């Protein structure tokens, strides 16, 4: 079971809801992924298109917990405002703190992220900061009392997969709260690898919504996460420099 | 009265003088929207009780797809 704050989940795959081109396919992909947590962004409503269908309205909110993000925020103040707006919906108490500091790499600004987390924790949010794979930052945020750490595998939407497995491993090994590997995931092997490293969960979006067949990719990611987790728990053999024969050395047939 | 909604000026009949009535007039009564009124974020239960006046500034936001 994955526990984040007061919430408990069976699935270890969190799914983003961005950039799906078809609401029916999105619905099927969400179903196929087995996820119980969906991320959303908060944006101004277009008053000229109030009847445009909204994915949230299609969802059975008894089945899913919402994890709104603060995407679009470049400062702690902006992130805090978005978080408060999200909470005022009455639909959620978790917040993915995402304060972007650079438009090219979309990397999170660590100083603003810490500031935002401090305020939101004091206001009673369940706080999940999106961070770079920075060991010390993860530690400091944990000390602040955040409810999960979400280090990026590689830049958002880049599909570069896990760039620095050692950095993720270090974060995971010291963690006292769930570590959710977020961003940059492309293929099921990336999801499996994150789980093999010991991550508690994986959050991805573009990998599914941008796939040629999003529903099939959602299934693949679900299986990837499960395979990685099972493999980790099963206990992997040590890595050795040289070969170790798997067939017996005795009873060789000689001439 | 004139309101600033999501950064745009909008003329609204004076009868729509609460947040609830405004949302109804914009066909948003049944939608999941969050309203900020003069920089004050409102809980849904507050909507019927918040009176609107000329030049008030409102943000009406909602959840959209995002990662």
TrEMBL record, chain A:
EC code: 2.8.1.10
Localization terms from the record: Cytoplasm
Residue span(s) of domain Thiazole synthase ThiG: 4-248
GO terms classed as biological process: thiamine diphosphate biosynthetic process
Catalyzed reactions per annotation: [ThiS sulfur-carrier protein]-C-terminal-Gly-aminoethanethioate + 2-iminoacetate + 1-deoxy-D-xylulose 5-phosphate = [ThiS sulfur-carrier protein]-C-terminal Gly-Gly + 2-[(2R,5Z)-2-carboxy-4-methylthiazol-5(2H)-ylidene]ethyl phosphate + 2 H2O + H(+)
Any one GO molecular function term: thiazole synthase activity
Residues at which 1-deoxy-D-xylulose 5-phosphate binds: 157, 183-184, 205-206
Statement: the UniProt record of this protein carries the keyword Lipid metabolism: no
Catalytic machinery residues: 96 (schiff-base intermediate with dxp)
GO cellular component: cytoplasm
Pathway of action: Cofactor biosynthesis; thiamine diphosphate biosynthesis
Cited Pfam families: ThiG
Keywords for this protein: Cytoplasm, Schiff base, Thiamine biosynthesis, Transferase
Quaternary structure, from the entry: Homotetramer. Forms heterodimers with either ThiH or ThiS.
PANTHER family in the record: THIAZOLE SYNTHASE
Protein family per UniProt: Belongs to the ThiG family.
Functional summary from the UniProt entry: Catalyzes the rearrangement of 1-deoxy-D-xylulose 5-phosphate (DXP) to produce the thiazole phosphate moiety of thiamine. Sulfur is provided by the thiocarboxylate moiety of the carrier protein ThiS. In vitro, sulfur can be provided by H(2)S.
Protein name, UniProt field: Thiazole synthase
Organism: Paenibacillus nuruki
Phylogenetic placement of the source organism: Bacteria, Bacillati, Bacillota, Bacilli, Bacillales
UniProtKB/TrEMBL annotation, chain B:
Matching InterPro entries: Beta-grasp_dom_sf (IPR012675), Mopterin_synth/thiamin_S_b (IPR016155), Thi_S (IPR010035), ThiS/MoaD-like (IPR003749)
Alphabetical list of Pfam families matching this protein: ThiS
Gene3D superfamilies: 3.10.20.30
Alphabetized NCBIfam families for the sequence: thiS (TIGR01683)
Protein name: Sulfur carrier protein ThiS
Source organism of the structure: Paenibacillus nuruki
